[in-house]
Amino acid sequence: xxxxxDQPRYKCALSAMQTVHSITRAIxxxxxxxxCATKLNDTSGTSGYFSPNIFPCTSVSEKxxxxxxxxxxxxxxxxxxxxxxxxxxxxxxxxxxxxxxxDIAKVASEFKDAPKPVLFANTPGFKGNNYVGHDWILKAxxxxxxxxxxxxxxxxxxxxxxxxxxxQDPYWLGNLREIESLLRQIGLTPNTIFGHGRxxxxxxxxxxxxxxxxxxxxxxxxxxRYLADTYGAPLLHYPVVPIGAFETTKFLRAVxxxxxxxxxxxxxxxxxxxxEYYYFIERFADTFLEMRIxxxxxxxxxxxxxxxxVTKFFVNDLGxxxxxxxITDDTPKQYRPLIEKEFSELNYGIKAEVEFITEGRAIHxxxxxxxxxxxxxxxxxxxxxxxxxEIYAHHINISYPLIKLVMNSHLTGYSGGLKxxxxxYSIASAKLLL
Length: 434
What we know:
The chain is an alpha/beta fold. The chain has 3 domains: 13-148, Nitrogenase molybdenum iron protein domain (Rossmann fold), CATH 3.40.50; 155-278, Nitrogenase molybdenum iron protein domain (Rossmann fold, 3-Layer(aba) Sandwich); 280-433, Nitrogenase molybdenum iron protein domain (Rossmann fold, 3-Layer(aba) Sandwich), CATH 3.40.50. 42% of the residues lie in helices and 14% in strands. It has 18 helices and 13 strands. The strands form 3 sheets. Strands 8, 9, 10, 11, 12 and 13 form a 6-stranded parallel sheet that branches. β10 (325-327), α15 and β11 (354-356) form a beta-alpha-beta unit. The model has no long low-confidence stretch (mean pLDDT 94).
């Protein structure tokens, strides 16, 4: 029997069109029903070089359902190549075109001599959400485009870096740039393919990297492993997005050991950043010691990325205590033990209970029954706004769906931890005035 998903916190696999769109001058071509792009484009910051509202689309109708849509797809691709100034095109499928069995691989192969690369990825919503769709997009690029490049020599210190999921993570670009900056500080050269100033030229560099680094609990792991295995560059899978001093220092040391970066330089960078971080903490020590305004216990209602990152930061840096942490991204079962293990390895011997759950109403019922023994803190999505008001909790909205504008802010690194503390105390202080 089908199950109704109340308060969704992710979208269908076709929404991974945002992964393509986040590569500068890359365009998705949708082989789907009319309106899919517009319906899926409900997150800010997605216009960019080419609006999702005018993505090339076959707008599959009853005619294609009966007679097949390959001819219409072929025409759509040909016309897109004629009129759109782009560097890369990726055909993506919706549910309808997958159900009728259209052969998009065959259609894409007919454009192998086109002036710009034409790739394909099967992304029907009935096969998964946009978290797994992101992986499918990356693997399609690695499998179909990279083999067409000339052989390359490894570039010393070059590191392919993947952090979070474009657009679905509201802070994705700021987080990525901050971790890029940290890697540069310890003497490495990060290579990323998303955002301003990157693009196909950076994809071309992927085989030349000495190392691969994925900073994510599980999203992107399949494609990162493929890239590492195919091009002989080992992969560091760091499952915790580092927020604040404790985890960022741990991350930099792990990267230093993995890549052989200069240890003295790495430790000097850590000391400089920690000194600045704790300078700001000390400046506001009196504020932090005023316990009447701040929560002592918290829950997260988010994807694995932020549930884990925030829990590590709140416990290890701020000394807060975790109640149940709700992970809402429908994490595949094979990745759950690793995530649970990370939640059990907090400072002071603390372990956080984790529940993998996608049903919003059930989550809120569990939160209402939680004994916070003080002012609750709820970190998650805009869906938690009402239940937070109901139990007089502090509510921090950091993940999709989001009710604030994020342009280039970040939560990663030392400075990201300070930013999150600012948000926490601003929200708590404002509640005192209500």
